[in-house]
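Thread: Modeling a multi-component assembly for a lab meeting

Hi all, long-time lurker, first post. My supervisor asked me to bring a structural picture of a complex we are working on to next week's group meeting, and I have zero experience with this. I have the sequence lines for every component (1048 residues in total). Could someone generate the structure of the whole assembly? Inputs are pasted exactly as I received them:
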Amino acid sequence: MTRGWGIKLVTYLGAILLTMFILAPLAWIFLSSILPEASILLFPPDWFQYGLIYDNYNYIFTGQVPQTPLVTGALRTMISQEVRLVPRAILNSFIVAFAVMLVNFLVGSLAAYPFARLRFAAKTPIFFLITMSRLIPTVALAIPYYLIVQKLGLIDTHWALITIYSVLTLPFTILILTLYFRGIPKEIEEAAQLDGCDPFQTLVRIVVPLALPSLIGTGLFAFMLSYSEFLFGLLITQSIKTRTLPVILATVSWNPDVTWGLTSASIAIGLIPTLILVVPVWRFMVKGLVAGGVY
Amino acid sequence: MVARERLRRLTRSIRFSAYWMIAPAVLLVVAFTLYPYIYAIWSSIRVTSPLLPPAFAGLKNYEAVITSIYFLRSVKRTLIFTAASVPITVLLGLLTASLLNRRFIGDIALRALVLLPWAIPISISGVIWRGFFNGGWGALNALLYMAGIIPKYIGWLTTPNLATLVVITVQVWTQFPFATVLILAAMQAIPEELYEAAAIDGAGLLQRFFYVTLPSIRAMLAIVIIFEVLMGLTAFDLTYALTGGGPGTATTLISYFTYAESFKMLNFGNGAALAVILAAVSLIMILAILQLIPKGALIGGEEG
Amino acid sequence: MSSTKFHTRSSKIGRRDFLKLMGAGAASLGIAGIAGCAPKPATPAGPTSLDFIVWSYGIETILDNIKQFEAAYDNAFAVSLKDIAWGEYHESMVARFTAKTPTDVCYNGGDWLPEFAKAGWVVPLEDHFPQALDYKSDIVSYALSDITYNGKLYGLPYYCDITSFQYNAKLLEESGIDGPPETWEELTDQLEFLKGKGFDPPMALEIAVELPTTFDNFTAMAYGRGGEWFDENFDPLFDDPAGPMGQQLQWMVDNYKAGLVTYIPHETDVQTQLNTGKTIYTVLWNYNLAALNSAGTSPLAGQYTIGLMPGATHETQGMAKMYNMTQMAVDRGQEVMDACWKFIEYFAGKHNGEYKVAERWAVEDGLGFGIIPLYDDPDVKEAFAAFFDPVVLKEQASLARSRPHPEWEGIFTEFARMQIVSAAAGEIAVDEAIESMSNRAKELKEQYA
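Re: Modeling a multi-component assembly
Sure thing. I ran the full set together rather than chain by chain. Output:
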């Protein structure tokens, strides 16, 4: 009995500590976004001295310039225009990430099946080529990637980002899907083959439905990575038509004409889609990453 | 005889389809991997800078990079950073996965929460934590001060050893969710019978962990460790936003210089040489880690 | 025979299904883009198109300026604006030029001009449009030397600034100190006094190895002592550890170790540090002072002012950001070049006798300018009075000079920044840092000769 209590205690203690670790900086972001700058910077700390404000959000969505409570002297305002591009950047990131997810879904499952099930020449080398292709740090790939994109005439397009992010995410997708497909009982597929299905038909009719959690899981994984990639977003996008969220947020946090509160508000808005997405990711990912048989 | 003939035909068709099916992935990867790799290696043995006449350099770029003032120091820092952040990440991932593998009140909410840090762009995580640890007005100082734990604010990001700890902490924060998900997935795939058998043999909680859980998730742990080592060796966005590499050069990691050589100093040759060295080190580490898992676990024979 | 048949049948199905699938996926793969990447046909009838590249600052204002420019010329030109985050502008432009991504006019910095000019990416404006030289007399000296390379005028200024010594005048007065220090040594005394009064840390500097501004800040402080990096032949003038550069570095280590100065990465965080009211002094580009004194971003707006850079000469560093025409524009022909000139003149020079765009930046955003007539512009005067002490600003600006920029400056500053930061944090000795910087400079001069 005492033993069970001990485990329970450790479980809840662990859960609480974990929650604090994860949420601490995020809570500060949300709080900062609704505090007047003067309250944030006060010493000794007294965060609620000047109440709560929604000016930062208001500015991002309507362009109405926020006022700090301790106005002295200065007549003019100087405030970042770039912050107001956050909502559009979220949309861009979403479009790109969603397309990458689809590519992973299609190309990933097509490639993983032969690696999992079929026998063909040079299988192992090709598999290693794909899974090890992420070895060179992306920083070193920046120039050649840029050159390829440029030659294809795709600078400042979503297509370029979709292609690059697909390349960056596919190795992982293929690795995980291969493992998953191999975990599916072989007998089911053999039955399909006896019915006259070729490998492609077997994949579409039998394997994909069975591996749906894994497909969605790896797809969402690809989505998340694409949604948060920074370096290529920076190099490839050159206008707000294509610019992605991480790039805009980085710009905002570098420009001298933003307050910490305004930076926080733009980060907070950028986090909303992430918050919405983590729930389904969880549901599919854990179920989908491993079907068993990986020892 | 007929059966054998049929089998041969079937095998042929399988091969043909196999190539078709992997073609899109292979094409993409070859176009965006082989070419950049060759480009990088080629640049690394040539004088490649818009400011200098192109010429063959042999191993001079490598020599220049290795003998540079930053190389040894930042390699050492990067190794320390990786050696500290990877085990902590994996351990925390393991603990979190074990926790989430249990049922308790609020477990679903915590599961969603755990993924959050990983879904945030790393460069932005840097900004977020910079505000939290800020020495002048950050939340941590304010909270510790209000609780009466510290009499005056601490320069978390401006004191060398503390800044190193902060950078490691944030790296763990951004990375452990991914480790958790993978490890938990592997844990849930362990057949219940194994635990039952162990319980019958009288194994306790810890014994079951060491004799059933750990061996069962070995392949996955290897994948996680490989991934995290790569993330550690190539960590780049994080320090820029968090510490700017400081104070002093306390948190300047090697991949910053890969970037600086190419883009700030316009010496693509040196940048490429550094990248090749980094890739070689990564490869060696990966091969070493792969030794830990049984042959064929990742890409097996036809038996799967 | 039958084997072949089987083979064909199977592959047919495989391929058909595969293509069907790919049809859906092709678009996502960007294969459509590969097919359609033939160069756009020229359209001589329409407006001349210009690709204008800037860093991400004030995009709405720029777009509005472009609209007015296009209207002023009856839409004979169509300008397409691309912007790149400031923190990565240099590297993105390098990628852009290396890959020949269409770029006709771009922002550039005086520190990058020699590099971009030597690489053949940007061209001397005066070679193609000698009338640009008429603007020389209107431009302040530090800006003029930043937009000039190898004796040739390459561009016209977008924005010019000086690094300044900034402080919270209200808190300084309340603490009982009469005014800002004359010398760095006097500053040390003040900092000790202020620390005793509870200002902790009393001074914050933006010093971080990965942030380029670090080099500017250090240079400006050493200029206050009369220091200099290079002579006109780019031979080092700083080799003596007891010279101004070495002295300033030593000053930083001593004050850092005494807890009087803290190093903060990112100027925005230096601003917030000052806005906590615990820190009095800093050295930053002057535009930060405009931000500090803006009610929209700063809770202590109005309390900050500019002081002369401490040191024997009170000199500081000035710089210019400019509009450049690119080699790519030249390659596109005379028509495009003419369009570039009209564009640059509209944005940086006079249109109908007025410096319209530069004035707008100064009035609306407090951006510094390097155009002498604008100092007497009533709107600019009024706007600047809210941000800066006009008398001190003018005096400091007259004491500003631009840094000599060798072509290898990008490489040198990367190296020097590491040394400066290491030494300033006490990781290596000052002598050691000075010596290795000087050796590196000599090496680079030889290598890039």
